[in-house]
Amino acid sequence: MVEETPETKSRSSDSQDDHVVFVGDKPFMNYVTGVVMQFTTHSAKESVIKARGKFISKAVDIAEVATKRFLEGEVTIKNISVNSEEFKNKEGKDVRVSTIELTLTKN
Amino acid sequence: MVEETPETKSRSSDSQDDHVVFVGDKPFMNYVTGVVMQFTTHSAKESVIKARGKFISKAVDIAEVATKRFLEGEVTIKNISVNSEEFKNKEGKDVRVSTIELTLTKN
């Protein structure tokens, strides 16, 4: 299993899966700031918050705080999807981990 | 603040917000079984998994395991919505808690 790094990705400036924020164990406000800056500094029309496992709750909190406190009336949660990935852990045991993607979009 | 009890509610048998499962700190499989039984034993067409705060990740896991392992091909996640509630905690401080609702529906 490859752990996703909790950092902001901006691969290029015009494809739709730009502006992805992967949620991990960094401080909560780092991610909120990361999301808010996608819209303010990087002029994104859309930003996607992705998380897996125990970080899913944190991802929802980040989306709620970004849209309701910092970008109220400007950005809303357009879509939410969940999924799960199965893989073998170090002991060779099958493990399932849930994932979430919250798509935020400019009004 | 009123803590939601982690139990299965089935108020009546024909209104749409029947078959609600509130996720709390009971064992994971209790909730999975609760959801699966909504469809198998109680012949529900729809079941809603609700959670708040740190239980959101668990709610997503429950939805994934119920739909992909136990009810594969029979039930899918039709809708996901998130929200947040603000309230004052014991110390009178404003606190925000995120909520999620995952609606599962028979195919």
Detailed description of the structure:
The structure is a homodimer of 107-residue chains. With 107 residues, chain A is of the alpha+beta class. Helix content of chain A is 26%, strand content 36%. Chain A has helices at 28-40, 56-70; strands spanning 8-9, 20-22, 46-52, 75-88, 94-106. A 5-stranded mixed sheet of chain A has the order 1-2-3-5-4, with helices on one face. In chain A, a hairpin with a 5-residue loop joins β4 (75-88) and β5 (94-106). The model of chain A is unreliable at 1-6 and 8-17 (pLDDT under 50). Chain A binds chain B through residues 53-57, 60-61, 63-65, 68-69, 77, 80-84, 96, 98, 100, 102, and chain B through 53-57, 60-61, 63-65, 68-69, 77, 80-84, 96, 98, 100, 102.
CATH superfamily label of chain A? Alba-like domain
Which CATH top level class of chain A fits?
A: Alpha Beta
Q: Mean pLDDT score of chain A, rounded?
A: 87
The poorly predicted ranges of chain A are: 1-6, 8-17
Structural class of chain A: alpha+beta
Silhouette of chain A = elongated
Strand content of chain A: 35-45%
By DSSP, the count of extended strands of chain A is: 5
Note the total helix count of chain A: 2
- Biggest sheet statistics of chain A: 5 strands, mixed
Distance between the termini of chain A: 37 Å
Name the strands of the widest sheet of chain A in spatial order: 1-2-3-5-4
CATH fold description of chain A: Translation Initiation Factor IF3
Query: What string, H for helix and E for strand, traces the elements of chain A in order?
Result: EEHEHEE
